[in-house]
Design a protein that fits this description.
The chain is built from 11 helices and 11 strands. The chain folds into 2 domains: 243 residues, Rossmann fold; 122 residues, no CATH class. The structure holds S-adenosylmethionine. S-adenosylmethionine binds next to helix 1 and strand 2.
């Protein structure tokens, strides 16, 4: 709601390009790029726009949103669900996104263990009683490595047409820089964080002394978190209600890894097989597809493979060959191709993942393709 309000009013003397809310989100994205947090929670996430942007940051494995208004979250939370493409090509990282309904004035164990907690344009919406509890909940209880808090800088308000008292009717207060900095420094001191002040939304030339339109505090925890929270300090009772949860398909999940490996193995083996057959065709004039003419084993040189696949160097002894109507593609050859190699890590893992999913020779060393009917015309 804040963002539309600001865009509406920023049509007078002061306009921002990109819009101010986008600059705030970009600030967070840049911070994620810098610190590479794995677990990020957005407090006061509203319609989940920031979360939706952050889900594309490849370092993030856990994303959580919290808001006191369930309906605003539910409105667009479908944007956080995996897309068909996520299933077709599962990512290497795992990603779980959860939305919780609750207040930042309450502690819930689901908010423990985060690396980065963002509070974008949230604190000015808190009642006095909530604001009082907020530092203990965020810095004391959640205690992430990094906290980012943004809030309007009231010194900028005279430059915003139509703003008399506050920028939004739901704001309970708007602070100038000295007020925000004194509150932030006190929270940082009490909970062992350092804090740096910055902002987005540059003031117009000549009146830079009003500061940024949005003021931002970036808090960094000074000491590593104690390994285990003291039980008495950390309540185990959940008070938030989970309203959304999406677990993205990932190659970390054996089920998706197996599908990806089997597809890649078959794809790679088919290319090897085709290269081999093309090579045989060109080398043996008069070659035809009658099986009788292919009774003897033929071991062509490895250089008949497409270089496009960027194969690793393999031994001569693991070259593919044709025997009768069957093409044998040694598993070691397939394993030497970078993509298969990267997906499986070890030859044993490759073997384990494809066992029962592809046809292997009796000793299990090669993939078998029967080509008897391959070139038949119907
Ligand atoms: N962070 C979002 C952004 O930058 O686009 C939305 C900010 S919006 C101005 C403030 C949000 O804080 C609203 O969605 C509101 O429901 C939520 N909020 C207000 N009080 C809250 C509380 N006590 N606990 C959690 N969320 C709260």
């Amino acid at each position: 709601m804040d963002k539309s309000f600001q865009e509406e009013r920023f049509t007078g003397i002061t306009t921002f390009t990109p819009p101010l809310y986008k600059q705030r989100y970009q600030f967070i994205k840049d911070l994620v790029g810098k610190y590479k947090p794995k677990k990020v929670a957005d407090l006061g996430c509203a319609d989940c726009t920031l979360l939706q942007m952050l889900k594309f940051c490849s370092c993030i494995e856990v994303l959580a949103g919290l808001d006191i208004c369930a309906s605003v979250m539910k409105d667009k939370m479908h944007r956080l669900s995996p897309l068909p493409g996520d299933y077709l090509q599962p990512a290497e990282r795992s990603l779980t996104i959860t939305l919780h309904h609750g207040s930042v004035a309450h502690k819930d164990p689901c908010m423990l263990g985060f690396d980065l907690v963002t509070c974008i344009e949230l604190i000015e919406h808190l009642e006095q009683s909530e604001l009082k509890k907020f530092p203990e909940v965020v810095f004391g209880f959640m205690a992430p490595s990094i906290v980012v808090i943004s809030t309007p800088n009231s010194e900028f308000n005279p430059l915003l047409p139509g703003v008399t008292l506050f920028r939004h009717p739901d704001h309970k207060f708007e602070w100038n820089r000295a007020q925000f900095q004194s509150w932030a420094l006190e929270a940082a001191r009490r909970y062992d964080y350092s804090v740096e002040f910055t902002g987005v939304g540059h003031p117009p030339t000549g009146i830079e002394n009003v500061g940024f339109c949005t003021q931002i505090g970036v808090f960094l925890r000074k000491y590593p978190q104690a390994s285990e929270p003291v039980q008495s300090e950390k309540p185990t009772e959940a008070v938030y209600k989970t309203v959304f949860k999406a677990v993205y398909p990932s190659l970390k999940d054996e089920k998706y890894l197996q599908n990806a490996v089997v597809s890649e193995v078959i794809f790679t083996a088919q290319i090897i097989k085709q290269s081999l057959l093309d090579h045989l065709m060109s080398e043996n004039e008069g070659y035809n597809h009658a099986s009788a003419e292919r009774k003897s084993k033929f071991r062509p040189s490895m250089n008949c493979f497409s270089e496009d696949l960027g194969k690793l160097i393999v031994e001569k002894s693991i070259e593919p060959f044709v025997n009768g109507n069957v093409v044998y593609i040694p598993l070691k050859t397939v394993f030497s191709f970078p993509k298969v190699n990267r997906l499986c890590g070890t030859f044993e893992k490759l073997y384990k993942l494809i066992a029962g999913k592809v046809t292997l020779s009796s000793d299990g060393s090669a993939l078998m393709f029967n080509i008897e009917h391959e070139n038949e015309e119907y």
